[in-house]
Amino acid sequence: MIAVNKRAGILLMLVLLLVGVSYGCIGGTNGSTATPAEKPKVLTISTTTSLYDTGILENVVAQAFKEKYNIELRFIPKGTGGAILDAKNGASDAILVHALSKEQAFMEEGYGVNRKVFAYNFFVIVGPKDDPAGIRGLSVSEALQKIVEYGRSHPDRLVWVSRDDGSGTNTKEIALWKSAGFDFEELKNESWFGTTGSGMGNTLLYTSERKAYTLSDIGTYLKYQKEGKIDLDVLVDKGEELINVYAIIIINPNKIPDKDFEDAMLLAEWLTSEEGQKAIAEYGKDEFGRPLFYPAVPVLEKKEGDVFRWILKYGFMKDGDKYTECPEKFRYKATYDFFEFPASVVEG
Amino acid sequence: MAWDYIIQGFSEAVHLITDPYVIEIALRSIKVSGIATLMAVVWSLPLSVLFGLRDFPGKWLFKSLINGFMGIPTVIWGLVLYLMFVPLGPLGSFGLLYTEMGISVGQALLITPIIMSIVISSLESIEGEIRELALTLGADELRASFQVVRESVGGIVLAVIAAFNRAISELGIALMIGGNVYVKGGVYNTRVLTTAIQMYTVRAEVSIAIALGIILLAIVLTVNLLSNLVRKWLA
Fold this sequence. Notes:
Radius of gyration of chain B: 21 Å
Largest sheet of chain B: none
Helix content of chain A: 40-55%
Distance between the termini of chain A: 96 Å
Shape of chain B: globular
Number of helices of chain A: 16
Structural class of chain A: alpha/beta
Number of helices of chain B: 10
Shape of chain A: globular
Oligomer: heterodimer
Structural class of chain B: mainly alpha
Largest interface: A-B, 50 and 41 residues
Helix content of chain B: over 70%
Order of helices and strands of chain A: HEHHEHEHEHEHHEHEHEEHHHEHHEEEH
């Protein structure tokens, strides 16, 4: 009988130990930062992996926002498609994305309001240094045609890698293939054409490993190249269609209940404020010798230059005879102004 | 040549193991999976005792159902729970998506069949012998059942340990329900060992992935060692 009691005692001790460990850890991690009563508010932001993988959101935006407003930003990195799905299911207060056609559809369905353009950079076609398909310095369409030619004559090797993950980069890629005269869905079935179904960083690693070509945003490419994780050259970087425009869209509180509309608006305001734009312009300068993103607001305020017209053409929505970052019907209790310009600026 | 980056990764990893960031992630892993194990134990133990000590029609079906549940891949749990936990989903009002508690609940569901299966079979292996002995010694039914449970403590310990190790080493639920959220000094972070290892491998930051991997392995092995010691002691 005594032996049995001893065993039961041990079991009890074990359970208590487990409780203690769990409880201790709760106290340990929370106690050092804040007690539950001081918990800051949290904003959930669904974002594209190309922004997240560079570290700018974690290291710059989240820190500044917390310091200034005591609001913690919870970034969920997925492709633009995944970010939009999360938002439609009520998981996010705002989305940071870069795929105009998907953004427009999202807003048309009533999910998003008060879109603001806050940054831009460029897509690049990267590939192995020896450039077997010979695309260096060509225009995008010519380069893609060469890649298809080379791919079809070398069906036994991997020539092109696509993210194929419904992301903004993937959306851009599909559009670029289309304007070069190819159908993405058909290309996908060819043996030289690979897909990863995953984020930008992962896709770059794979592309480098297999000595293939891919479309990348310049930010993720520079970060990975600089850190020596990949061995790829930028082969095509000219062409207005390569511009990559990042925007924030606030979730429409009338469509999705219980979203923190006011604080999401604060984030949009901060990103486009002088302070936010400066932070974007500075990020990466020290480390990579050039910024990974460019602030969009100064360009829009200046109202001239090639980049200005490209941002309008590839990052603004047409609303009647105007190009605007957010058409009138998608505005809701806006606390900030929207850029809009006559269509003649773009269409001449 | 080929081993260079692995060796370099290991040597850098050794320094990273004491990094506060790495420790924070490790502690969160222990906490999240510890709570998951606690929750699962709280509801699995009484159920297992109830079913383990009783014979009823269709018991074999019930047991094979539990065993079947053990085989559900964690990404399936991740997918199903994501659909349930999204704020506009059926269980959205609990606010579990992208939280530590969400991961814990998911892991608790994952390990429930493991606990039940091990506990029930250990109860059954002891049941006949002990119960009869207790009954011939003059115990009543309830008292005899109680003896059986006491005698299967070893099995129960094994179940709890196995469940905790399964929880802390799974990736699918932690990634899809937790979202791998991390903000420095943040209160709502959900980055745990498995999701961090996955992320750093994808980002090709091998050293920190190795450091986190060493910690995860150490936790799992330590817990196993402890369980062996306890079982040896009990025997």
